[in-house]
Hints:
The protein is mainly alpha-helical. It contains seven helices and four strands, in the order H-H-H-H-H-H-H-E-E-E-E. Residues 1-6, 199-209 and 217-227 have low confidence and may be disordered.
Amino acid sequence: MTASSMISTRRFSPSTRLRLQVLFARAWEALADTYQVQATGFVRRLKAQLPMEEALDRFFREVGVPAAMTDTVRARALVALAPLVEDAVEPEETPAPNWSPLRPDQLFGALRRRAQFVEETNLECRLAASIADEALAATHVRMALAVAELLADDCTPDEAIMHYVRSFNLPALDAQIIFRRTMASWAERDPLGLDRVEPVMPVVAICASGPLVNIGGRLRLGLRAIG
């Protein structure tokens, strides 16, 4: 899980380092739980297309579960999917029909249906993997914000967020997404309290200017705005 970071934990006090270790342990558990929930949803979504074991293996390939979490996520997912295993009904074995050659039109039709099934299955896998990626990104952002809050007195928010990203050794694209989303969430919080400062409205003074002008027998005042 850990990797080289742009800041050294030696600059932190012993109590801060200990709290940071606890926070990273919580982040690891939160990510493992998110992977397990998404793996379970992935298998349930594809139960009509793929067997459970094959769907679970497909989840690990599509989502890219870290090697350190693979066994933990698989074990938790299997426990959560236990009802599917118990409710599964073994198909009855039927004697194989005598082999007979297919006509060209039948062969092409079978190949076309097979290709369509594979394409639909791949699409469902990509959709389910996209849902999992978004859930994992949300978990990363939440935990990275917690790290930034913990280290608010020791370093800048971007340094703290990058420390989190590099500690989990995220891929370059995922790291950039997590970093930008966390920075945006931090900015929306407005930790300096600028949203509580009352805006100062400019004061516009109005005074009479110029001589009185008699136009059409009526008296008018020329007004000029000074501000």
